[in-house]
């Protein structure tokens, strides 16, 4: 069988345009799963059955470290991006307490538009007595760097945690600059890079962050596996105590299969980079056509650097959930905001933080293109979106006119 390495598995006839929620599994991963399954031994076993799994884990760690530009032992495998975010925030705090490094109330700084696995953990840290400072963003999603510096100046800070790319708007944050600022004032720097992986090239060495979180299911591999990069010398108290796996930083028998799949994707880093770059043209075509054919549409986060695959739209006069369901019935998978908060009657906290009104935030649509997305799919989607928005707007207009 000749493999086109990064071709992805299709799900029925559905046209999937929600790649920031999750990605399909790459064929190269699906093809190797049976092989990896044969390595069912425990990687900690000394006898023969442990050797295969141990090698798979070692090779995956090495491939990921080459892609991230870090050392293999700086990577700690976790149960996903949420766990990696929890591990760094809670683990650093516990470590500082345990080693009596806190002379006063510890401070942690984050942004208003982080993923809930950072924001909710920060809420938890605040309940433990941490002084959590949340830096606002502007209407375009840009973080206020002056306010960040002011917060750093005010009081010694243990950690700054700012994401690399936003999961809803795709906005990119100047991580290198934020890291420099954090370090200048003696704080450690963590970045949630879950949405950046596979979409933009980066070097952890150049960015110089102390910690970074990753998730494999946003990277065409499997769910329930992720990683936390911990710069050499950095120390955290583990979340999960037990065996000595991951050098004592995350106990529990390793998920060999999922780790191998994660590493496999990193092995294709050059093709990943070229696929990611080629998406820009398709997204720009999608954006241009929508703006030209549907009146009053606004691109959320336009004017700032964005992920090439992402498009977040405000479509006034249309309820986002209704639009989503209508498009779903026509065979298109899109979302109104982050998948983890969909189904909630509340509008997206990210859009509210960007200064959108509730009504505006409820008229939003999030599109995320992937490596498998074709021009034909995008054109079919545009046609259907134009017709559906027109129908929903005239329906809404009729309802208003009638009372
Ligand atoms: C920016 C960001 N961080 C963290 C996560 C959580 O990752 P996981 O689903 O692997 O827990 C997500 C997933 O939606 C995300 O988009």
Radius of gyration: 22 Å
CATH architecture of the domain at 15-25 and 269-401: Alpha-Beta Complex
Distance linking N and C termini? 63 Å
Question: Given the C-alpha coordinates, what overall shape results?
Answer: globular
Enter the CATH topology name of the domain at 15-25 and 269-401. Answer: Aspartate Aminotransferase, domain 1
Number of DSSP helices? 13
CATH class category of the domain at 15-25 and 269-401: Alpha Beta
Total beta-strand segments? 12
Mean pLDDT across the residues is 94
Strand content: 5-15%
* Biggest β-sheet strands, sense, barrel: 7 strands, mixed
What is the structure about, briefly put?
With 403 residues, the chain is an alpha/beta fold. It is built from 13 helices and twelve strands. The structure holds pyridoxal-5'-phosphate (PLP).
Describe the fold and architecture.
By secondary structure, the chain is an alpha/beta fold. The protein has a domain at 15-25 and 269-401: Aspartate Aminotransferase, domain 1 (Alpha-Beta Complex). The protein is 42% helix and 12% strand. The chain has a seven-stranded mixed beta sheet, sandwiched between helices. α1 runs antiparallel to α8, α3 runs parallel beside α4 (116-127) and α10 (320-329) packs across α13. The site of pyridoxal-5'-phosphate has 14 residues, from α3.
